Amino acid sequence: MKVKMWGVRGSIPAPGPHTVRHGGNTTCIEVRTDADNLIILDAGTGIFPLAQTLLAHLPVTANIFITHTHWDHIQGLPFFVPLYIPGNTVCIHGAYDLVAMKGIEQVMDVQMQYSYFPIREAELRAGIKYETLTVGAPVVVGDATVTPVLLNHPVPNLGYRVACNGRAIFFTGDHEPLGNIYTPDDSEYANYQAIIDHRHVELDAALGQLDLLICDTAYTLAEYPAKTGWGHGTFDHAMDMAKRIGAKRLICTHHEPTRGDDELEKVFAEALSRHPQLDCEVMLAREGLEILL
Amino acid sequence: MPQLTLELERRLTTAVERMPAFPKSVQVILEMTRDINCLPRNLVGVIEKDPVMTVKILRVINSAYYGLPNKITSVGQSVVYLGINTIKNLALSFAAVGILPRFNTTGFDIQRYLLHSLSVASLARLLCEKYARSEVDPGDCYIAGLLHDFGKVVFAQFMVGEFMKALAITIDHGKPLFEAEIEVIGADHAFVGALLAKKWKFAEPLVNCIRDHHDAAAEPSAMLDCLRMADAICRKHAFGDAGNPWREEELAALPTRFGDDIEVVIATLGDLQKIVNDAQAFAQIGTEK
Ligand SMILES: [Zn+2]
Ligand SMILES: [Zn+2]
Fold first, then answer.
1. Fold of B6-287
2. pTM attached to this predicted model
3. Do B39 and A181 touch (CB under 8 A)?
4. Domains assigned to chain A
5. Omega before A82 within 30 of 0, i.e. cis
């Protein structure tokens, strides 16, 4: 399998002189299976430069897996050029929206409305399919399987485990470790904590045996208290998790849009120094980073 | 075993989706959620006092797309799995449906129903903590209490004429309400409540508990025992009877795990006034005409 990062920014694109080294595009990851099937994890603005590279080899067959429908993970979708070319096949997978009571088919429709976009969803020329996923049910893409795992974010967020010929990667999308909504003196505290502990065991089990973990590390340890409940984790959360589940490699992503390259490298180094025992390779995500597994 | 036609079953299921929630929870949720820093535990505290909101949340979260291996049985658990923001927005969408009127054309008093459900829920949890802690989760007993009579609100909303007749038979002839319902409707609120709960993929012990709560011959379980005892205490002491007044002959059929004197059991539970006051405050009984 080959993994390539095309967008590593969280929340909003952050182009400019301070982000040239890591890149300003929002979340998009290209995964090529051993048999060269194309899996795209999230469709932030990073999907646009990825799309340019695909045009050299038509027709395109792509399976796009959306972790969740916040803008920074879908805003590149209408600019995924293969959607406009007859003969291409694109399947968009994602979660069921409990509040809207709609499947992932709304992800394009919502963005491509008259007031917001010049082209209607119905005018796309590629063969497009929408697959609303069932949590835990694997989807076969050529020689790989993709399994959605429900994680913790203000909107249901699916992390994806992509497995191919004995190798496995996992991308969290946006995820914050679970926290107790009660304080220790509330009578409900212990009961709620028991559910959380059980849930963490379930999640760690779903993330076992990973060759690569790509994890949301939006915040630093110092920033986190003010951002608790916002749906993102810290570098330290990710390193703890990688250690717990025994992941071989960890890529930290979803960089804060206000964090320039120097600052990013500094806070990353600080987090690393707090985890001297970590026996896995840890990297900061940057646009163009490629990992061969 | 009573039979509902498929058509009736379909009608009741879709009707519940459009059923409004209770005035107090709708009002409090709208107020609370205007503050971006509203505390999750306060929000959960309101949702889990409203049987309609609770039913709707459990129904949605147990939906097949989330394929959750262990059934979600409480609002708190739903928050662990889906996060507070999703639960908040679900609650807001339920609040947007409107509010249940205090009385509808059946004359069924929805506030007294809520008072009963809340009191039974809290008592069932308390009984479980004292008598059955090791066998079943007290939180699950709370939900069983909260939802055991859900079939009645469904009848009151969607089978108005029939339910009115059943209520009248209970008052005029001193017949238990569930028997009157079977006579008039062909199925009682326990059967209909369980049928809906099953359709929504609620946990099996909860479905069985709703189904069996009037069946003296039903297979006993810790949850059912706590529910039946809580129901008896509430109705005997008139903490809301939801249209089904207490009859002394019910004493004989009470679960044996609590001994043979209901007053002794009540004494072990300490001061119940707080439970009743909390329930009353939420059901708004006595605070408005
Ligand atoms: Zn994001
Ligand atoms: Zn997000």
1. Hypothetical protein af1432 (1.10.3210)
2. 0.91
3. yes
4. 2-286 (3.60.15.10)
5. no
